[in-house]
Amino acid sequence: MRKVGLKVAAAGIALAVATLVGGCTSIRDHRGYMIDQSLLDSVQPGIDNRMSVEKTLGRPTFESQFGSKDWYYVSQQVKTPPFRKPRTDSQTVLRVRFDAANNVVGVDKRGAEQVARIDPDGHVTPTLGRHRNLFEDLFGNIGAVGAGGMGQTPQGPGPNGS
């Protein structure tokens, strides 16, 4: 009887460990356009135009605002480790270039090598004025309103004192 209890306890511990380890895996997620290589290969420069590209690939993620009106399709694989912020694992950007007559000139495919990594500065922007803490902000004005001239006539330059 004692051996059965030990086996059940060992099985319970193994199940608990498997559950804890399973809960610490990264979550993988897809964001943006789902790239289908066979559809992408069917877009031919000189043959297709904006309408045929839209029917084949769908609406773009965004359209360029300056210069030629190129279409961009963005696809990302995102990985979220436990208790951390999501990170882009891989990224693909498809660019469909058009000429003035809205015909396809070319299709470019780029990866994450074109992404600029920005590390923002964590310092506080300096401003003019006093640096006050929370308590000074909450209680700093108590007694300041009307404290200097309660019941007295204002004297000196100003809207009511001149």
UniProtKB/TrEMBL annotation:
GO cellular component annotations of the record: outer membrane
Keyword Signal attributed: yes
Residue stretches in coiled coil: none
Superkingdom, natural source: Bacteria
PROSITE patterns: PROKAR_LIPOPROTEIN
Keywords: Membrane, Plasmid, Signal, Viral envelope protein, Virion
One Pfam family from the record: BamE
Domain Outer membrane protein assembly factor BamE: 32-105
Name of this protein: Cell envelope protein SmpA
